[in-house]
Design goal:
Layout: H1 8-11, E1 20-23, E2 29-34, E3 40-48, H2 61-68, H3 78-87, E4 91-96, E5 100-108, H4 112-124, H5 130-147, H6 151-164, H7 185-195, E6 202-207, H8 211-222, E7 244-249, E8 255-262, H9 271-282, H10 289-296, E9 304-310, E10 315-323, H11 328-345, H12 349-365, H13 370-382, H14 389-398, H15 402-413, E11 418-423, H16 431-446
Length: 458
């Protein structure tokens, strides 16, 4: 990675970070932190769009575009383009989420002009050469074939299908085995034309560059893009109401459990309380309730965790675990018991204090490189947070009261869980087995199809 550790004084939460709202002469806006501690520039940016802007009958277009933007542009074919990047140690990468087409640039200060020029070419004149398109298509299809037999991919895919039904968030963001072969170069060009526009563009830059020089770089890089995106409207949606359970039979050594339900959107007042209490139930590390009860006390799984996922038009919480087929019922039961218990009782004051301490400390680690800081500042823009939120974050965490946490816990887990189990058929008549028999009869009766293609959660 090009990004190097930054001094703590530059990213600390005591007011040392100076974030500027920089506007270029063409109206390009960026959040900017000037940092002279290392000779690097890190930029993160995003356009509104992502998988939600894929044609209904061709999921995967946005994902394929993200894989091809760095494969040649203008008069540079893929090999020549990459040689230019490698010669100057310039990093360009692109990605697609459900709501955004994202990109990142990392370069040494001395190579900034060439780096930004190559990015401009990638954004404004991608080639989409036939050989590159077919290579990326083959890679996508290989991943989809693997996902069709991967229990975690199957569980994630089914979870989104159950949660979002016919909403764009239920679509296969990486495409399907049926849709990817149908994607044409015209689809890719149309997506770029519709999505990559200045009105939805968000930018964050951290590095050793003069503000006036950065303004000129932004104008030169992004100024030639269309002014207004031609986005298809995406409605708000609330995930399906729990409890629901689906079993997908698959002959694999380990049974996978994916569970979740409706979450709290980033703009809602209860978001931080939900974030804190979710850490208590299923956050990372070795101290969450799920980790203690499912792994430490009963040895049911190697890992079990849960996280909040927020999008522009919805929010969910989702967790994952893996266990033996003959212990799947017990694993699901314990996960449900812990969710029910915290919904009914809430966390203890000690749990709340410990969670706050962890989240305050993790804020420092989230900002300890130029790239991480740029990524965080971009996310804050996408979440419509104030420009000084980096400094306010710990105070927002500290403001969560025990009553807030109890209210958020009841909201998240009070109605139960959407649970997807993928693996060998469990022995006996446990709840997983019973629900699978009910589901199988429904499939026969109503012709419900089990789509086994992967959809990433975010």
């Amino acid at each position: 990675m090009l990004a190097s550790p930054r001094s703590l004084s530059a990213v600390g939460t005591h007011g040392a970070t100076k974030i500027q709202r920089l506007v270029s002469s063409c109206g390009i806006v960026a959040w900017f932190v000037r940092d002279a501690t290392v000779p690097l520039i890190a930029m993160e940016y995003a356009f509104g769009g992502g998988a939600s802007q894929d044609p209904t009958d061709k999921p995967g277009v946005g994902y394929m575009v993200s894989g091809l933007l760095g494969e040649g542009s203008g008069d540079l074919d893929s090999q020549t383009f990459h040689e230019r990047l490698d010669r100057r140690a310039i990093e360009l990468c692109f990605g697609s989420t459900r709501d955004h087409l994202r990109g990142a640039l990392r370069t040494l200060e001395d190579n900034r002009d060439e780096a930004f020029d190559l990015l401009r070419m990638a954004l404004t004149s991608p080639r989409f050469d036939a050989a590159d398109v077919e290579r990326i298509r083959a890679s996508m299809l290989a991943n989809l074939r693997h996902a069709s037999t991967d229990p975690s991919s199957l569980a994630n895919r089914k979870f989104l299908e159950v949660a979002f039904s016919d909403h764009p968030y239920a679509r296969e963001a990486r495409g399907t085995i049926e849709s990817v072969p149908k994607i044409e170069v015209a689809d890719l060009k149309a997506y770029v034309r519709r999505v990559m526009a200045k009105d939805t563009l968000k930018i964050a830059v951290v590095g050793n560059v003069d503000p006036e020089a950065l303004r000129k770089l932004l104008d030169r890089t992004f100024g030639g893009l269309p002014a207004i995106a031609e986005s298809m409207p995406v409605p708000d949606v609330v995930a399906a109401t729990p409890p629901q359970r689906v079993f997908i039979p698959l002959d694999v050594p380990q049974t996978v459990v994916t569970f979740g339900g409706p979450g709290v959107r980033r703009s809602e007042p209860d978001f931080m309380a939900a974030y804190v209490v979710n850490h208590i139930l299923g956050g990372p590390g070795l101290t969450s309730r799920l980790f203690r009860e499912v792994r430490e006390k009963r040895g049911l799984a190697y890992s079990v965790h849960e996280r909040l996922v927020w999008m522009d038009h919805s929010a969910i919480f989702v967790g994952n675990s893996g266990t033996r087929a003959d212990r799947a019922d017990e694993t699901v039961e314990q996960i449900e018991n812990q969710a029910r218990r915290i919904a009914e009782e809430g966390p203890t004051q000690q749990e709340l204090d410990d969670a706050k301490s962890y989240l305050r400390g993790s804020q420092m680690l989230a900002l300890d490189t130029s790239s991480k800081l740029a990524r965080t500042l971009l996310q804050h823009q996408l979440d419509k947070l104030p420009i000084d939120y980096v400094k306010k974050h710990n105070a927002v965490v500290d403001a969560v009261t025990l009553e807030d946490a109890k209210r958020a816990a009841q909201r998240l887990w009070g109605k139960g869980l959407l649970t997807i189990v993928v693996g060998r058929s469990p022995m006996g008549a446990g709840p997983v087995g019973r629900d699978f028999l009910t589901r199988r009869r429904a499939v026969r009766r109503h012709g419900i199809a089990q789509n086994t293609d992967q959809t990433p959660l975010v």
